[in-house]
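Curious: why these numbers?
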Amino acid sequence: MPKLILVYERDSIWKLERSVLLAAADVAARERIVRVRGRRYRYHEIDPAEVLRLLEKPEGSIPIHRITPVPDKKLLEDLIVAFRGGK
């Protein structure tokens, strides 16, 4: 199931979206913009170590108000295992 993880300032997980449909036309690589469900987002390529840091510490270090709570701990653990190539 495709997932999209929205982050705030590359520091903390803001929101987790499930079942995201994304077509090649939704990505403007040169501008680093992706359109998801009618909204435009900036994106940055990050290395695997930064991905793991975000998944392991979803609250980050910047105090922010959250629309939704930090994703479920079990879901984050499953994402970490999947990211590392596990099942």
